[in-house]
Amino acid sequence: MAARLYLRSGLDPDAPDTVFAVLVVDPDGTPAERAVAGLGAHCYEGDGALHLVRTDGWAEQSLDAGLLTVGIAVHPVPLRQAGVDPAGFPDRSAVDPQAVVVLSARTAAEPALSARLAEPTAVFTAGPDVSLDDLLKSGEEWPMVLAPPPART
After folding, report:
1. Which of 19, 20, 96, 151 has the smallest set of CB atoms within 10 Å of its CB?
2. 110-139 confidence digits (pLDDT tens)
3. Is the distance from CB of 77 to CB of 99 less than 8 angstroms?
4. Euclidean distance between CA atoms 67 and 111, whole angstroms
5. Is 151 among the domain residues?
6. Domain that holds residue 40
7. Is residue 152 part of a domain?
8. CA distance 139 to 147
9. Is residue 115 part of a domain?
């Protein structure tokens, strides 16, 4: 099973109508999922979430013909620190060719939802038998929040 990508509102109590891309990766899944799950140990905690520093990695979102694609791009040094060999991932970020795209996922995106899509992407780590609804209800699992790509200079 591959990473699961969803569009969900109601995740931010201050902006309940805002829609977020939510990715669920299996820590025992594909090499791409394991790589993303391993990044959680290199995040800082804040506001009930884990945040990856934008200079280390980010989420690239694109909408095309009713499909949302989210790509997780990470620089080689943080990947190596997470025990992941960047050489196993040949795709590069369109924003920064030095960054490796370790995972890409797609989901259908209705126009009404995609119009309210926030830039950050939330990533949860759970096995394939755990639903997103169960993750959100439990409140025990903090999401890893990946910001959009840094601005080009």
Report:
1. 151
2. 888 888 899 999 999 999 999 999 998 887
3. no
4. 10
5. no
6. 4-146
7. no
8. 21
9. yes
Count structural domains, the chain: 1
In single-letter form, the type of residue at position 131 comes to S
Q: What is the pLDDT of residue 14?
A: 87
| Residues 93/124/45/16 CA torsion (nearest 10 deg) | 100
Q: In this model, does residue 7 exceed pLDDT 60?
A: yes
Residue 75 CA neighbour count, 13 Å, CB half = 12
User: Strands, E, within 75-149: which ranges?
Assistant: 100-108, 117-125, 144-146
pLDDT tier at 153, thresholds 50, 70, 90: very low
Cβ pair 152, 42 in contact under 8 A: no
Tokens of residue 127, six digits: 């096995």
**Any domain includes 36:** yes
